Amino acid sequence: MDAYLSKEEIAAYHPYKLQEDGLTPKQRAQKRMQDLDLWTDKQYMGRRWGIGCVALEITQRCNLDCTLCYLSESSEALKDIPIEEVFRRIDMIFAHYGPNTDIQVTGGDPTLRKRDELVAIIRRIREVGMRPSLFTNGIKATREMLEELSAAGLVDVAFHVDLTQERKGYATEVDLNEVRLEYINRARGLPIAVYFNTTVFDGNFHEIPKVVDFFVQHSDVVRLSSFQLQADTGRGVLAERGFAITQASVADQIRKGADCNINFDLADIGHSSCNRYGMTLVSDGKVHDLFDDPTYIRKVINATAETVFDRTNKRRALESIIDTVIKTPSLLPESAAWLMKKGWEMKGNLLKSKGKVNKLSFFIHNFMDACHLEKDRVDGCVFMVATKEGPISMCLNNAKRDEYLLKPIEIQKEGVVQFWNPITGGFQKNAPEKLTVEHTRKTARGRTKEKIEAERLAARATKTADVKGQAETTQS
User: Fold this and answer.
1) What one-character-per-residue DSSP string does 358-414 give?
2) How far, in Å, CA of 249 to CA of 229, rounded?
3) pTM of the complete model
């Protein structure tokens, strides 16, 4: 393993600048994979898209205080960036990566943003030709809100639910299936794909199979389940994960819960140490691996590289695959053979379910610790964050978050250049030289909250001791 990046090397990294090299986003991505020796016949990056996804953080505020959190200790005290800047970043993302780029509208929790602004952001992303996803803990994501966002162009909603959020009344990960089911029912019937994110840590690793089984039983609505391995980054109070939690061990837990030998090695999504992906079909509650014929599936991946799948409509997505296969005559004999084989394998389940089949994908995301960044993984990143200065790797951004957050944003208002202050939320004529956050108990989260509480308790203990000492002196 290469040595981890030093603080100086991390500081030397900057967001990507828009390149005028004559290449398309996918060509640029392919070249990046080739330069890093990551280009294979199963590599999605540079073949299916120019970037995996881009996080658009529209607020730093959150209504939870997770024990694992990538946000910085300053985040909760910062105001929401101006809507003009959000729109500018949307245009910047499009300029870098082009149509059909997947945008994670996130935060903090994006549902804390003003409702009309959240709707406008979703609409703007869709209008320029990209695909917006809402990443939320779900607390404020009501059915009414999801309906309005869907009408504005929302493609996916990803609910993050796990024990690190310390939701009151839920002692186990399985207990939280009650929350997951509520969210599923909120989104049921809407033309949006439903995902779930789960952070894997020592406290819930043993329960992952039961969580997977829950997603299998609700695969009529749930399209993808993402498991994100614990990382020591941000303001969370938990540190490095135990040695038992690895991509391989989490993949085994997923297989156990699905009761299926899911292939997580067929598709490369950027760096294999960062991402693992498996795809299955579910019929009558039985999971069947979709990647069990690697040679054929890789041919399909290559043939459908330019195909845009409609994630809001299962029928149209299937029609897109069929249309592509029909237009690729060399694939027809193998496709017919594969369908016959898969149909025979699933015949009993298909009969019981009256032909109903659902697609359920599993994603394993291995974030890096902020102090353990590997250069090849940073350079091969497929998950960007849109900063004021351009897109940057998520793990790298997490390691230097305040460098971008605690900067004034230059905005032209009514023909005059002004500077937006992220702490006050106001505009001023001149850019402040340095911004410093002073926390209150209301804005403190994670380690800062623990520190403030410890100082408060210490002060109370000192005061009690002083009062006791004065009383004893008076009595004597």
Assistant:
1) EEEEEEEE-PPPTT---HHHHHT--EEEEETTEEEEHHHHHHTHHHHHTS-EEEEET
2) 11
3) 0.94
